[in-house]
Design brief:
This protein is mainly α. 51% of the residues lie in helices and 0% in strands.
């Protein structure tokens, strides 16, 4: 069997054109958008990695759980930069792990990054609307127009 790199594998798996609306992401985004915007809470991986305190505040608000100093202290070990000190961290592997959005920029060829931006443009534009604080991250490799 011929081994291929991740860049070739991605393009072979996804093929040409934009993803189908019947794709997982389209279905998922459609379900989110059925929730009235006043009741919708979107808390993302970008916020988890880049603004952990706000991520926790949003979770507590959504769950109606008071964010006490004790709870905040218990959650401190969940920060990505502190996971190696967390004895309950499942897997206990760090090498190659995501600790912030954008890992793909170090691991994929520029043409693969552009391909993914075109392929997932619709989903990424929708995510930018739902997570405006990090819209620049979603739209970074999405063609304009």
């Amino acid at each position: 069997m011929l081994e291929v790199g991740i860049d070739t594998w991605i393009q072979d798996q996804l093929g040409p054109g934009e993803i189908s609306p019947r794709d997982y992401f389209g279905v998922f985004m459609g379900r989110i958008e059925q929730i009235p915007i006043q009741q919708r809470i979107v808390n993302t991986y970008a916020r988890l990695c880049l603004d952990f305190d706000r991520f926790i505040e949003v979770c507590c608000d959504a769950l109606s759980v008071p964010l006490t100093p004790e709870l905040r202290e218990q959650l401190e070990v969940e920060r990505t930069e502190k996971l190696t000190d967390n004895t309950k961290w499942i897997g206990n592997q760090w090498a190659g792990s995501d600790t912030a959005p954008g890992r793909y920029k170090r691991e994929l060829k520029p043409e693969t990054i552009d391909y993914l931006g075109r392929k997932y443009a619709g989903v990424l534009r929708r995510m930018a609307l739902h997570d405006p604080d990090y819209a620049d991250l979603y739209l970074e490799n999405v063609p304009t127009g």
